[in-house]
Amino acid sequence: MDHVKVLHCADLHLGAELSSLGNLARERRQELLSTFIKITSICRNEQVDFLLIAGDLFEGSNIDINTVRTVKTTFASIPDTIVAISPGNHDYMAIDSPYADGDWSGNVHIFKSDKEMIDFEEKNVCLWGSAFRSTYVTRPLLESIHATEKNRINICVMHGDLVSNYQLSNYNPVSPLHIRYTGMDYIALGHIHKSSGVMNVGSTWYAYPGCPEGMGFDELDDKGILIGNVYKGSVDLEFRPVCSRRNIELKVDITSAKSDVEVADIIRYDMMKTYGDSYRDNLYKVILEGALDEDYVPDVSSIGARLKGDAYYLKVRDNTHVRLDLEALARETSLKGIFIRMMLEKIAGYDAKDNTEKAEKYRKAMYVGIKAFENEVPLNDY
Question: Cα dihedral sign for 63, 67, 69, 74?
Answer without folding.
Answer: negative
